[in-house]
Structures are given as C-alpha cells and as structure tokens.
Backbone:
C-alpha cells in the first residue's frame, strides 16, 4: 500500500475506542437528541438532586457513610466511608460527587484518585465514567483494570447504570480484566442493549474473557455470531473483529470460515465486507500447507 493504504489494526483500535463510550451523531440519534452519551433524558431531573451526597447513617464509631448517585444523567449508587478516604483525596472525591464543572479539574481529580490505588475509591472511579470526559474515563478504566477482581462488583453496577457511557466503559474494563464470571452479563448486553455503542462494547468484551471451558467459548461464539446480522453496520463490524479474536490466532476451522464467507455474500456495507474478507485471508495465510 501507498500513502492511501489503511492500517486495519488501527481501524479496529478506533472501533474499540469508539465502542467503549465514544459519542457520535449516530448515538445522538439513538438517544433522541440527548446531549452526549448519557442515559434516558427522563432521568436527568430525577437524578440531579442525587449529586449532593446524602448521609445515610452514623455508626457508633462515628464513621459517616454516604450514599451517592452522581454522574451525568445517572451514575451508580454507592456507599462511601469517609474514614477510609485519605485526607489528601477527600477534596477530589467531594468535587466529583458534587458534579464537576471543569474538564481539566475532573481530569486532575481522576488522576489523583487513580494513582492512590485505594480500594475504597473504586466506586468513585466507576462513577467518573459518566461525566462525558474521555480522558478522565480512560484514566479511571486503567485504574479499575489494575485493581482486577476487586473492581468487578462495582463495574457490574456500572453496566446497569442509567448512563450509556458508564455501561460501555464498564464493559470495556470487564473485558480487559477478563473474569469469565461476567459472561452472561456481556452476552445480555451484546444481544439486548438499546444502542449500538453498548452492544459493540459487550461484543468485544465477550471475545476478551479468559474462558475455562470449551462450552463457554462456544456460547460466547454463538452470541457473537448472532450479532453478524445486527441492523447496525458498526455492530456487525465489531462482531467480525470479535469472532476472529475468539477463534484465536491459529487458522479457523472450515465451519468458522464458512460463517464469514456467508457474511461476504450477503453483506452490503463495504467496511464490514472488507473486514470479513481480511479475517478469511489471515486465516488462509496461517493455515498449514497440505502435504
């Protein structure tokens, strides 16, 4: 290729970045014109009050626990014990809970919270995913992935939040952590999530989990294959990427090749058809030569 050639791996990377919570005019239309990748607009007024921390109780040890539900158009509800929050971070946490009014300040606060590696602040990192700030969100995702299994319960809550960006970023983190216990959650999101943004994230997460049995791999493959018929081209593209990934770097078996060849016959979108053809060509190149 000359200067006009396309790096497919770079395109796949763009797709994953887009899938994890990026916003586009398509998602604008999906949400009926709702600004940004937030959730249903009907939740905006109902949840605005929740940005102010609510004191739930004071224990005999005088530890104050607050239940917080912030984010844009609905983050996650979580309980925070201020005695477990390092003093140096308390100001950053309160700033986030109150609703950030500056993109750079949000990034700075996220960076400080992420660097602390404090387990008590993992739910705050999940909540940060909902503030329409990709830099802060990616800092939070990296920190959540680094925490591994300790983040999973909070990320699962993020998948169920009233905010599509939180859903998608949480699925990204779960895919990178790779715990197969979230397979059913990823499967359900891949098949039933209301917008392509979240479906793409779930599909790619399904292909990234560390499965412990062939049965689970077959189940994940079946879910991915079903999305090859999704009406949205970007979801079909993600399904091709995920299918190639879950089949492994080794050559595909004949049945798997037949699936992609069938897609080539009926696919009208140029990008999806080209990506499916590339997957077939890669598999053919890696197949052993006949004796």
Residues:
């Amino acid at each position: 290729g000359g200067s006009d050639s396309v790096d497919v791996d770079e395109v796949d990377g763009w797709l994953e970045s887009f899938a994890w919570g990026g916003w586009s005019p398509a998602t604008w239309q999906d949400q009926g014109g709702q600004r940004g990748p937030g959730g249903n607009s009907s939740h905006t007024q109902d949840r605005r009050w929740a940005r102010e921390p609510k004191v739930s109780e004071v224990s005999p040890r005088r530890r104050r626990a607050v239940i917080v539900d912030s984010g844009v158009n609905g983050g996650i509800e979580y309980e925070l014990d201020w005695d477990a929050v390092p003093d140096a971070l308390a100001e950053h946490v309160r700033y986030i809970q109150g609703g950030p009014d500056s993109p750079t300040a949000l990034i700075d606060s996220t960076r400080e919270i992420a660097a602390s590696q404090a387990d008590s602040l993992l739910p705050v990192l999940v909540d940060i995913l909902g503030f329409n700030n990709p830099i802060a969100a990616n800092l939070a995702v990296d920190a959540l992935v680094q925490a591994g299994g300790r983040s999973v319960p909070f990320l699962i809550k993020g998948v169920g939040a009233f905010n599509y960006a939180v859903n998608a970023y949480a699925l990204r983190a779960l895919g990178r952590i790779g715990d197969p216990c979230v397979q059913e959650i990823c499967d359900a999101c891949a098949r039933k999530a209301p917008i392509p943004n979240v479906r793409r994230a779930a599909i790619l997460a399904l292909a990234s989990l560390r499965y412990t049995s062939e049965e689970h791999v077959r189940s994940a493959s079946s879910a991915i294959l079903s999305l090859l018929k999704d009406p949205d081209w970007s979801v079909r593209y993600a399904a091709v990427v995920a299918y190639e990934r879950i089949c492994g770097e080794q050559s595909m078996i004949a049945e798997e090749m037949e699936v992609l060849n069938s897609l080539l016959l009926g696919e009208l979108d140029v990008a999806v058809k080209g990506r499916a053809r590339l997957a077939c060509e890669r598999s053919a190149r890696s197949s052993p030569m006949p004796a």
User: Anything to note?
Assistant: The two ends are 33 Å apart (CA to CA). Residues 247 and 256 are 8 Å apart (CA to CA). Residues 1-5, 18-63 have pLDDT under 50 and may be disordered.
